[in-house]
Amino acid sequence: MTTLEIKTSPVFEPLLAKSRYKGAWGGRASGKSHFFAELAIERCLMNPGTRIVCVREIQKSLKESVKRLLEDKIVAMGVGDQFRILYDSIITPGKGTIIFEGLVDHTAESIKSLEGFDLGYCEEAQTLTTRSLELFIPTIIRKPGAEIWFSWNPRDDTDPVDALLRGTNPPADATVISANWRDNTFFTDESESVRVYDQINKPDRYDHIWEGGYEPQAIGAIWTREIIQRNRVTKTPEMSRILIGIDPPTESGDNSDMCGLIAAGLGTDTRGYVLQDESIRATPEQWGRAAVAMYDLHDADAIVAEVNQGGDMVRSVIHAIRPGIKVIKVRAKRGKHIRAEPVSALYSLNRISHVGNFPELERQQCLMTAEGYEGKGSPDSVDAMVYIFLELFNKMTKKARNNANRPVRATNQYRPHDGLQRGNKNGR
Q1: At residue 27, what are phi and psi to the nearest 5 degrees?
Q2: What is the rounded distance in angstroms from the CA atom of residue 418 to the CA atom of residue 420?
Q3: For 206, how many CA atoms within 13 A lie in the half-sphere containing its CB?
Q4: Taking Cα atoms as reference points, which of 353, 341, 345, 343 lies closest to residue 407?
Q5: How far apart are CA 144 and CA 137, in angstroms?
Q6: Rounded CA gap, 3 and 407, in Å?
Q7: Residue 307: how many CB atoms within 10 A of its CB?
Q8: Residues 183, 212 contacting (CB under 8 angstroms)
Q9: Quick one: pLDDT at residue 136?
Q10: For the purposes of burial, counting CB atoms within 10 Å of the CB of 243, is it exposed (0-12), middle (13-18) or buried (19 or more)?
Q11: Are 92 and 98 a contacting pair, CB within 8 Å?
């Protein structure tokens, strides 16, 4: 018989009792993930044969799952001899198993493969869609005695998991607690230094990051999280054209704005896709090398930059690193929010998707209103993204600006390539 002594912060003690639904919400460094990982290992030891599925909305790879954390806990708890770590799963005592899934990839038919599991653990549950919850919960709860655990940092009170467990009508058999950094009895000095830094340098986001408050969203924002989430995907079709957008800072230094660096493209389905956000605070050489690396990674067709804010400088920086890369110069004649409106309209028409999650870009989007940007600093990621889609959807966005009340359609004028494996540009 294995005897374990598991130290638990008092804030999590209510979750040790039997409950159909268990939820822990709050900010960074609260210990939520560590608590649930330890509880999962304990459950497997106490009930041999336990089957657990750990899910996220989008899981591009096992690196994004809690698998590594569970492996570390197995070692730290000294029970490695009772578990077998495989590439994509963990075999538990009594021939049980722990598997890792992305819910967005499931259908009403495929979700049936999860019937009979004893426990469903939802990490980063704030990203779960209503569709995913409606598929997942009935599948797991169908088994008598099964539990579902949720861990999340709330973004908005419209997040489906937040509405489910913190709304006006939560499930009858639900235990939900709030946990933040000050509740973590194992809070480290290293985490404290990061917290203080964010408190000073990210005052507009500090409450969300560390205290579990909702992400700021401006009244009248031209993007909403609901629209962004509705169109989120994990894969793209074959891509017709891919661009790298750069919004360069006007000055360099520790107090300068970020350099917006976005990769996005147009699929052969005539829809736009945001592929990567690598926005950084860096010197021109540093962000130039980062842009070229993104260009190579995505086999991009060109780099887009605004002339008004250093476009000529961007071309010089890029060509000093890689001569010959095409740099498309954009001249801004309107304010940031006016430029952004046609692109936000494309989102509303379900014409643009995010391939994965881009927290900083999405935060900036939800602070952009018809009157201007209501966040701190400059919406660098948004600007870089807008440059790309104004170029990719040039005809459509011009038409939308000229006659906003008439429906418009985009036509793909670009020669199809071979997606991310398109090969040598010299052959074009």
Answers
A1: -90, -165
A2: 6
A3: 12
A4: 345
A5: 13
A6: 67
A7: 14
A8: no
A9: 96
A10: buried
A11: yes
Give the rounded percent of residues in the chain with a pLDDT score beyond 70: 88
What would the two tokens of residue 268 be? 């052969």
Specify the pLDDT at position 404. Answer: 45
Identity at 401, one-letter amino acid code = R
Q: What is the mean pLDDT of the chain?
A: 87
CATH numbers and ranges of domains, the chain: 17-189 (3.40.50.300), 225-420 (3.30.420.280)
DSSP state of 322: S
Q: Which 8-state DSSP code applies to residue 233?
A: B
One-letter amino acid for residue 107 of the chain: T
| pLDDT tens by residue, 121-132 | 999 999 898 899
Q: Could you tell me the two tokens for 149? A: 């655990």
Reading the block at residue 361, the tokens are 């870009």
Helices (H), 112-258: 130-141, 160-166, 189-201, 206-211, 225-230
pLDDT digits (tens, 9 = 90+) for 240-289: 999 999 998 876 655 567 899 999 999 999 999 999 999 998 899 999 99
Decide which of 423 and 241 is more confident.
241
Using alpha carbons, list the distances in angstroms from residue 227 to 51, 103, 345, 365.
35, 18, 10, 11
The token duo for 153 is 């940092």
413 burial type by CB count under 10 A (0-12 exposed, 13-18 middle, 19+ buried):
exposed
Q: What three-state secondary structure class fits 311?
A: helix
